[in-house]
Amino acid sequence: MVRVIISLLAILLSFHSHALTQVSASVDKNPVMVNESLILTVTADDDIDRNALDTSALLTDFIVGRTSVNSQTSMVNFNTTRTTTWNTVLIPRQSGELIIPVFDIEGVKTQVIKLNVLAANKSAASSQQDLFITTQVSATDIYVQQQITLTVKLHFAAELKRGSLTEPTLAGANILQVGKDKESENIINGKRYRIIERVYAISPQESGEVTLNSPIFSGEIMMPSARRSNFLSFADTKPVSVVGDDIKLTIKAIPAQVNGAWLPSELLALHQEWQPEPSQFKVGEPITRTITLTAAGLSEEQLPEITMDVPQGLKVYPDQATLHTGLNNERLVSQKVINFAIVASQAGEYQLPEITVPWWNTVTNKAEVAKIPAQTITVLPNADITQIVTAPPSVALENTTPSPIVETVIIQPNNFLQWLFLALWLLTLVAWYLSAKRTTKPKRINGETSSKVNNAQLAIMAACKKNNGELALTCLLPWAQSQASSSSESESLTTLDSLHSYFNDQALTNAIIELQQSYYGKSPSDWSGNNLLAAIQMLHKKNHSKSADKKININP
């Protein structure tokens, strides 16, 4: 019992008597290459506060990465040993001889370390590289808001366990990754490397001389371990970091002679397509005009709006613009495509004005204008549309109530028969006038003359005849709004679902559902406009009959 107490006392005394006596510093490689990481290890022979190591003195010559701290206590034959170890990842900023300064831990100092940093183009350095980054930009002398691409390639010959690559940084710039990472392999200086390639689109927003900071890779690589067992071979991991070379950029301001929108591009072009061909245009049938704007070195967001003005007699229905971005010969190319559906209400020749987009040519340093010239289209009569818009004989297009016919009547005196015929004629005329006033008043449906087929209805019926589902989807809401009886009801018709409750017509509902499923269903299919056209025509006929029923009251 006494021996046990003595042993415990000895242990307690050993804990309290231990104090910091030595601090050492070392690096895992020397020499090292520019932008390649090394590990600085600082070890103290006591249990020290983890925040006792101050690495701020290294920031001038090194990029200081993650620091890990490990504390360990061991006891052998009542001798207690404590150690605190700091592992810090460093990346040299420049070549030459760099100094890792003295570190002071609770009054105990480390020794100075002289580090030989090799330039990237030296063969001695390249033979040591297991991990490095290369960067390349499409241009270094650019304008404000001109978009360039930065290609980053991470080369590694060791096995990576985990890692992450930061984004490049540039003050006052929009930076966006383009596409997905690409993987490949290559042999460099006799060593096989796996390569991960990433492309960024960079759009500076401020002029001047700036520095584009390269991304930094931080991770862990697998290292063989000397520890072995009879059954298993273990592997350790080693933290690594690497950074690419920074790139100097010259950003030029917007030229003084530029007025309006600023579109700096290497190439900007407008293109149009027609369907059907321009010689086949007919009244009431939709004409699809597709305008494509293509620009190199501009993002999707920078592409301007495209509008099209049409003369009286034409109606235009623009679709939602579609945007595309891709790489072509390491250049970012963006496109905006928009379809315009044009419907003519009458035959004739129409002059379409030109479409222009001013832009700045970054190759020639001159202002230019992309243009689609003005052109004349000829719209031919359409017998089918004429039959649709012609009113039935029983319905008047205008208030055709005739004015009473004034006749001169010569009355002979003392002629009884003449007086009798005059009275009968006057009574007939009054009766005929009252009857005509009741029966020839224009029938109105939803506040409009019932026989009137407006342009919106022409467009939807033409789309159905052409089996053009995309155009039919575009024309459904304008047609429905044209049928509304008030402005408030028209404003409420903003979605296809609102059409079902407003018209309360099962045939129309089924036709709209069929149209939506053919384009947005799980199995898209070709669409036929017969059902939708029949539903619209039947709805039009029902409105006629409802109007007539209101004027006929049958007593039981």
Rg from C-alpha positions?
43 Å
Portion of residues in beta strands equals 35-45%
Number of helices: 10
Which class of secondary structure composition applies to the elements? alpha+beta
Query: Low-confidence parts lasting 5 or more residues at pLDDT below 50?
Result: 12-17, 122-126, 386-414, 438-452, 547-556
How would a crystallographer describe the biggest sheet?
5 strands, antiparallel
- What is the β-strand count? 31
Average pLDDT value?
A: 78
Q: Span from first to last CA?
A: 123 Å
Helix content: 10-25%
Shape: elongated
Describe the protein.
This protein is 23% helix and 40% strand. With 556 residues, the chain is α+β, with helices and mostly antiparallel strands. Helix 5 (455-465) runs antiparallel to helix 10.
Q: Which SSEs are present, and which pair or pack?
A:
Elements: H1 2-17, E1 23-27, E2 32-33, E3 38-44, E4 62-76, E5 79-92, E6 96-100, E7 104-105, E8 108-109, E9 113-118, H2 123-126, E10 131-137, E11 141-143, E12 148-156, E13 160-165, E14 173-188, E15 191-204, E16 208-212, E17 216-228, E18 233-243, E19 247-252, E20 264-265, E21 267-275, E22 287-296, E23 314-318, E24 322-328, E25 331-344, E26 348-352, E27 355-361, E28 366-372, E29 375-379, H3 383-389, H4 416-439, E30 444-445, E31 448-449, H5 455-465, H6 469-483, H7 487-492, H8 496-503, H9 506-520, H10 530-549
Helix pairs in contact: 5-6, 5-10, 6-9, 8-9, 9-10
